[in-house]
Structure formats: C-alpha cells, structure tokens
Amino acid sequence: MASPRQEGQSSSLKVHMLRLTPGQEVKTSLEEYVAREAKNGVFVMTCCGSLTSATLRLAANEEGVTNKVKTFKQHFEVLGMSGTVGRGGTHLHVSLSDHDGRSFGGHVVRDLVVFTTMEIALGEPTGLALGRSADAATGFDELTLTKV
C-alpha cells in the first residue's frame, strides 16, 4: 500500500516571544500580532499561562459528530498550545487543566481570556508563507505552504 501524499518545505526560523496580560483574548491577540509583525505566518512553539474562559470545539465522537462547541467559564492553567496563524486563517489547539488537576483540550474557537499571563513563543519560517485553503477530503480549510 502506498503512503499518503505528504507536503513539506524547509526554511530558516525567526522566533517571536510574546507575553499577553490579564483580560487579553489569545486568538485575537495572536492574529493582530501576526498581521503586524509576521505577515507570512507563524506556528506556536510553546506557551504557558492561565485563563478565565475558553470556547473549544471538542473531538469527534463515535457517531462522527465533529462540531460540538463548548464554552468553559472558570480558571485554567494552560498546559500547552499548538497550531498555526497565517494568511487565510488560524488553527490552534489548547490543553488546559482545572483546579482539581483534570486536563482536557480542543480546537480553539474563541474566548481564551488571559487570567494572569500567557507566555508564547512563535516560530516564523523565513521564506515560506503559511496559508489555508479548502480541502475536500476533510471539509476544513487546511494548511498550505508557499515559498516567498
């Protein structure tokens, strides 16, 4: 059986370090920063911090339902975040823990509001533009890479 088609590009890397402060919304703040400072897009290298809310799309269930969105309004520690912010859209996933140490996560929809701090390292691949375009196989806008 043949392996699925894989796409990739190599490049050098520029690192951006950010600290978001109480009340800032993470996804919007990242999109605004990238539009100003890294127009070709970035990927999240690492992050940690705390939140007071999160709206996430949860994983598909056994029946294949893929669009369950839930808003959580409580304090969370951010265990990690990954994804891309670029031309055409943002794709972020976050892992959180609550006051009892239970962890969960999902696809970031909106409302990641900083409680005390959010420290984020972003990688900007030089010579590449990160974009998104519709993928008939998944039904979602998926990552595209273009040499610039």
From TrEMBL:
It comes from the Eukaryota. Gene3D superfamilies: Hypothetical protein, similar to alpha- acetolactate decarboxylase, domain 2 (3.30.1330.80). InterPro entries: PPC_dom. Transmembrane segments: none annotated. Pfam families: PCC. Residues 10-146 form the PPC domain. This is PPC domain-containing protein. It comes from Penaeus vannamei (Whiteleg shrimp).
